[in-house]
Each structure stands twice: as C-alpha cells, then as structure tokens.
Amino acid sequence: MRLLIPLGLLLAAAGVQAQVWKCEVNGKTVYSDRKCEAKGEALNPAALQANSLDASADRAAIARSKDEAAAAAAQSQMERMQQAGAGPAASQNVCPTDRDIAGMETRASSISLSREAKSFMQDEIRRARQCQKGQGRYTAADWKISRDAQDAQSSLSGGADARRRAESMHSAADPSEGDRISRSADRRESRAAYCADLRARGRECPAER
C-alpha cells in the first residue's frame, strides 16, 4: 500500500537525498515516497529542505519586525505622554505688557469710579504683575475678559457682573488667586449680612476701612 504522509514528516524520515512525489489523489494533493499511480510529479527533497529553512528564517524576521514595531509604538506613546505632561508647563503664559499695566493704572485713578470698581481695577493691576512674574497660566482670551470687565467699570450698569466674570476667569487660570478671590467673596457676603442685620434694627452699617 502506498504511504501518504505530511511533507514535513516525510522529509524528516527520508532525509534530504530521498525522492519525494507530489501526487493528486481524489482531488487532493498528497506527498509520497513512491511514484504517483496517476497524476503527480517528483520533487527535489534538497530544494524542499532549503525552502523549509528559508520559511523559518522568514518567520524569525517577521517576529523581529513585530517586536521592533511594538517597541517603536511604545516609545512613541511614551513620548506623546511626556509631551502632553510637559505641554501646559512649557506653554507660554500670555500677560499684559508694561504699557497695558500703565493704562490700567490710569483708569484706576479715575475719580468717577465707585469704591468697588476702583478696588477691582487695583486687583487687576496686581494680577497682571503676578502674571508677568510667572504666576498662573493665562491666554490672550483670558485678558480679553479682563479688559472688557475694566471697561465695564465706567458704565452705570453691568460692572458687578463683569467683575464676577473676570474673577471666575482668574480663579481658573491661577489657583492661588482663586483662593484669594474666594476668601474675599466670603468677607463681602459676611459684611452684607452684617449690614442687613444692622439696618433691620434701624442702625447704619459702618464704612469699611
């Protein structure tokens, strides 16, 4: 009976000098150590052995390529994470110029400003100088909010809302300033409650020092 076995086992058993036949039996391709009874062809075992070695080398090269690609992807991911972590700290902090601050000081000295508006303008000058010293992380859009709020202090209405918008912006851009703004707001609320109680009892609220 003709022996039909897988090619790899056949080569291992027969050695590189044995004759190998590639036969077609019932529509299927099989390999044998004997000549095909019907359709088939003789193969060179030495060539097949070389092809087997070449395939092993190809598989090793593919494995190395996959390892190198994985290492490159990991390195790229690490670099992106490092850049993302360093981005905010490395980004430029946009601040008012000395000329801008001089203009703010001029507006703050106006006698037409209310006490609250003047205090706000002085706070904005201080915040601008803090920014120049590297405190906080501001953008050009942030200082646009500040300028709009400064302009609103000269109007008869809208000044208080503009101050709150600017203070919210500063709280987001500079956590330290945000804490100061929060404490100041608490003091204002406490004073307002105190004055309301005095007025309810027919007394005047003393002026702030």
Strand content: 5-15%
The general outline is rod-shaped
**Strand line-up in the sheet with most strands:** 1-3-2-4
Classification by helices and strands: alpha+beta
The domain count comes to: 2
Instruction: Supply the number of helical segments.
Output: 7
Query: Which sequence of SSEs, written as H and E, runs from N to C?
Result: EHEEEHHHHHH
Radius of gyration based on Cα positions: 42 Å
Cα end-to-end separation:
116 Å
> Main sheet?
4 strands, antiparallel
Mean pLDDT value: 78
By DSSP, the count of extended strands is 4
Helicity level? 55-70%
Unreliable residue stretches:
11-16
Tags for this entry?
DUF4124 domain-containing protein, rod-shaped, 4 strands, 209 residues, 66% helix, signal, 7 helices, alpha+beta, 2 domains
Could you characterize what this model shows?
With 209 residues, the chain is of the alpha+beta class. The protein folds into two domains: 91 residues; 103 residues, no CATH class. Helix content is 66%, strand content 8%. The chain is built from seven helices and four strands, in the order βαβββαααααα. It has a four-stranded antiparallel sheet with strand order 1-3-2-4. A hairpin with a 2-residue loop joins β2 and β3. The N and C termini lie far apart (116 Å). About 3% of the residues have low confidence.
Quick summary of this structure?
The chain has 209 residues and is of the alpha+beta class.
Per-chain topology:
Blueprint: E1 4-5, H1 7-14, E2 20-25, E3 28-32, E4 40-43, H2 45-90, H3 98-108, H4 115-132, H5 140-152, H6 159-173, H7 175-200
Antiparallel strand pairs: 1-3, 2-3, 2-4
